[in-house]
Write a structure and sequence with these properties.
The chain has 439 residues and is an alpha+beta fold. It has three domains: 141 residues, no CATH class; 87 residues, no CATH class; 177 residues, ATP-grasp fold, B domain (D-amino Acid Aminotransferase, Chain A, domain 1, 2-Layer Sandwich). It has 15 helices and 17 strands. It has an eight-stranded antiparallel β-sheet. It has a five-stranded mixed β-sheet with strand order 5-9-6-7-8, with helices on both faces. It has a four-stranded parallel β-sheet with strand order 3-2-1-4. The longest helix is centred in the C-terminal third of the chain and has 21 residues. It is globular and about 60 Å long.
Length: 439
């Protein structure tokens, strides 16, 4: 049987206010959904917000040993935010739903796998008869993933499991949020303000009591050196932080120079499987991934994996089935602090599929995979030619080289690459060679 894969990354379910983003930013974020093409198997149907360039699809299918007639890629009509992001109105467009029906029947599609299982996906699944074949559908249909993509819900569940977290508050009360921030800043400690529903570090602010605090996991650092400045900041930004008062916020102590790690796990009827632990490369928000045994010590990896599995216990008991991404930071003092979870596909899901297909199930402990989201090239064709001419293109026979994992050239003039090597030094040397490329 086959799967309907839906690339609804950064939709209205995951982003507090899509209208606050520029059309260019929405285009860039929606383009990330094209990564899901790496998940395709024969008979699968992929729905994405933007067309997949023939050169990118050929690159991907050729490496996977598939032909173009074995998979189907569809793009719905534009919606209220245009054609950059796959919003619910596009997914549920009546004409598009009717277009899907015969395609799914022809390919014997019996389950749905979205990037994020929101209410629009649940409605579409019911309309197309895919609800019974989708594990955990009851939890998903009732909005369960709202809990699993909430930073506030995360703090409550993690605290209940006794997992270490940064000192902080989850609240919809401005006085509580502002008061915590003011106390931290008065003591010389920076804080991070996190919107409850957002992804990739977007929507977060660092509030700093002194210059020199570099933002990691946030778009900016704001200097606030007295209580009056703190009050003015919350006057100006409280509505944005809370989505016009609809959502609470998280305010936590910020630990500068920490290393952010993420783990992807799969929750199923029989238990929980760990896919990998990865380091998030921030500039200052997420711009790449490093999966390598050298990114953390064995002790750190074990502690993270144990804590992540423990966090999955109540999540599994609630009825969730599927992928979950759990983040921690490693502070300069050696603390491991759990920071959030996301019950959905994530920025490393396609890398897991690439790793298992080309390197084996133990890829995360014996190889290095190094990615950047934005290698500037003129076109997908130019990227492939550059890699081929210099002998850098990925070779499935050796398991080494560079794959183009997402093509953003139409909208952003960039591609995302993934370097696969035996060790970090070799991967970094290849990355330096890519940095010399010019469009």
């Amino acid at each position: 049987m086959s799967t309907l894969v839906i690339g609804n990354a950064y939709n209205e379910h995951l982003v507090g206010d899509l209208g606050a983003l520029t059309p260019e930013r929405r285009d860039a974020l929606g383009n990330i959904s094209l990564r899901l093409a790496w998940l395709l198997e024969p008979g699968d149907v992929l729905v994405v917000p933007q067309p997949v360039t023939p050169a990118f699809l050929h690159h991907l299918l050729d490496l996977k040993g598939l032909s173009a007639d074995e998979v189907t890629v569809l793009v719905p009509p534009p919606g209220r935010f245009g054609d950059g992001i796959l919003t619910g109105d596009r997914l549920l467009d009546p004409g598009f739903v009717e277009r899907l029906r015969p395609v799914l029947a022809e390919n014997a599609v019996d389950t749905v796998l979205p990037y994020a299982f929101d209410s629009a996906v649940a409605e579409l699944a019911r309309l197309l008869g895919l609800d019974k074949g989708t594990p955990g559908f009851g939890f998903l249909e009732e909005g369960g993933t709202d809990l699993l993509n909430s930073k506030c819900a995360f703090r409550a569940i993690a605290a209940g499991r006794g997992l270490p977290m940064a000192e902080g508050v989850a609240t919809g009360d401005r006085a509580v949020a502002q008061g915590f921030a003011a106390r931290m800043l008065a003591g010389g400690r920076p804080v991070i303000v996190k919107q409850d529903h957002h992804a990739g570090g977007y929507g977060n602010d660092i509030l700093a009591p002194h210059p020199g605090v570099d933002p990691i996991g946030a778009s900016r650092a704001v200097l606030l050196q007295d209580p009056a400045a703190v009050a003015r900041h919350f006057d100006t930004h409280w509505a944005a932080y809370t989505g016009g008062g609809r959502h609470p916020v998280v305010v936590e102590r910020y630990h500068p120079d920490s290393v952010p790690l993420t783990a992807e796990l799969e929750i199923h009827d029989d238990g929980v499987d760990l896919h990998h632990v990865a380091m998030m490369r921030m500039r200052p928000v997420l711009d790449g991934i490093a999966i390598s045994p050298a990114c953390q010590t064995e002790e750190q990896r074990t502690a993270f994996a144990d804590g992540a599995r423990d966090l999955c216990v109540p999540v599994r008991a609630m009825g969730y089935r599927g992928l979950i991404n759990i983040d921690v930071i490693l502070t300069p003092d050696g603390e491991m602090l759990f920071s959030e979870f996301n019950g959905r596909l994530g920025g490393t899901t396609h890398l897991h599929h690439i790793g298992t297909r080309f390197l084996g199930s133990d890829y995360a402990t014996r190889s290095t995979m190094l990615t950047r989201n934005s290698w500037r090239v003129g076109s997908m064709e130019q990227a492939r030619a550059y890699l081929a001419e210099r002998g850098l293109a990925f070779d499935p026979a050796t398991g080494h080289g560079v794959l183009v994992t997402c093509d953003s050239t139409r909208r952003c003039g960039t591609v995302e690459y993934c370097i696969v090597a035996d060790d970090p030094d070799t991967a970094r040397a290849t990355e330096r060679a890519l940095a010399l490329a010019t469009a």
